[in-house]
Write a structure and sequence with these properties.
Structural class: alpha/beta
Bound molecules: adenosine-5'-diphosphate, magnesium ion
Radius of gyration: 23 Å
Oligomer: single chain
Distance between the termini: 40 Å
Largest sheet: 6 strands, mixed
Strand order of the largest sheet: 6-7-8-3-9-10
Number of strands: 14
Helix content: 25-40%
Order of helices and strands: EEEHEEHEHHHEHEHEEHEEEHEH
Length: 295
């Protein structure tokens, strides 16, 4: 069942086309990654979804409701965390968590709130003006995850969190998913969201350039191999092999994952003495898309 639908959404700022026809769909119970470099249009898309910005064209609905006209209804069932959380400087973290929940008119689960404060190691008694960026993110995350929302819209929510807290965040996303909730999670760091997402859309300069399940996108990735063989191995000019380097008698190279089987046969003919492989990540795909690096 589709929870969120974006169809051909465009956004102009003056003469600048920030979104050039964005289409995507998030299903119930799904964690959907929205990936792209800074300035690609993630926050613009998300602000349209939140009804804060009006799209120049196209259609966007959440729970089947128009995001611009029916924002009040929609907001009863969504939680939002931005990448740069601004808080009331003179209120404590705990007060702000309660305020954020009240503003959204949701019934906070007190035990869940306490549990999350504990897990995120947040001191809720401090005034927000004393919080670091990471602590302000934690306040917003605790408020979001202690609300019982159907859709969590998270726009680069972990900026400023240390790796340990990033892990806590990931657990929270997976817990929400386990309860059948949906999550739209944006990031400019793919590896950060890769293990959480069922599907991802990759946005660049206001356009979705790839979308699909991780398995569907993985054929676009490369595996990095380090091999040492008994007989000399030459891979220059072999289809699907890139960036061959020789280091201490070993070859280090990248292989298009879909050509792996064929290339491994060539390697094994030379007698494998040592073999290491780094799993393909979408980060690599992402880098090639964004930096136009040709191998
Ligand atoms: P992302 O969140 O992916 O980093 P944004 O959606 O914030 O990217 O921005 C997309 C593009 O739109 C950027 O080039 C940005 O400068 C531009 N932009 C965003 N908001 C505005 C605005 N209010 N006025 C003019 N340009 C904007
Ligand atoms: Mg942004």
């Amino acid at each position: 069942m589709s929870i969120l639908q974006v169809k051909d959404v465009t956004k102009r700022f003056g003469t600048f086309n920030a979104l050039k026809g964005v289409t995507m769909e998030v299903n119930k119970g799904e964690v959907y990654g929205f990936i792209g470099p800074n300035g690609a249009g993630k926050s613009t898309t998300i602000r349209i979804l939140l009804g804060i910005l009006q799209a120049s064209g196209g259609e966007a609905t959440i729970f089947g409701k128009d995001v611009w006209k029916e924002a009040v209804e929609i907001h009863k069932h969504i939680a939002y965390v931005p990448g740069d959380v601004n808080l009331w400087p003179n209120l404590t973290g705990g007060e702000v968590i309660d305020l954020l929940l009240k503003l959204r008119g949701v019934n906070p689960s007190i035990s869940r709130r306490e549990e999350l404060i504990e897990r995120f190691k947040l001191d809720p008694s401090k005034k927000c003006r004393t919080y670091s960026k990471g602590n302000r993110q934690k306040v917003a995350l605790v408020a979001a995850f202690s609300s019982d929302s159907d859709l969590y819209i998270l726009d680069e929510p972990t900026s400023g969190l240390d790796p340990l807290m990033e892990r806590v965040f990931q657990e929270c996303v997976l817990e929400a998913k386990a309860q059948g909730k949906s999550v739209l999670l944006s990031s400019h760091i793919l590896s950060e969201v890769e293990r959480l997402c069922d599907r991802v859309a990759i946005i660049r300069e206001g356009e979705i350039i790839e979308a699909g399940t991780l398995d569907e996108l993985r054929h676009l990735t490369r595996t990095i191999l380090t091999v040492k063989t008994k007989e000399p191995l030459t891979l220059n000019g072999v289809k699907g092999v890139h960036d061959v380097e020789e280091k201490d008698g070993e070859l280090v190279f990248h292989v298009d994952t879909e050509e792996l089987d064929r290339v491994m046969k060539l390697v094994s003919e030379k007698g494998i003495v040592k073999l290491e492989s780094a799993p393909p990540t979408l980060e690599d795909l992402f880098m090639r898309h964004y930096e136009g690096a040709e191998g």
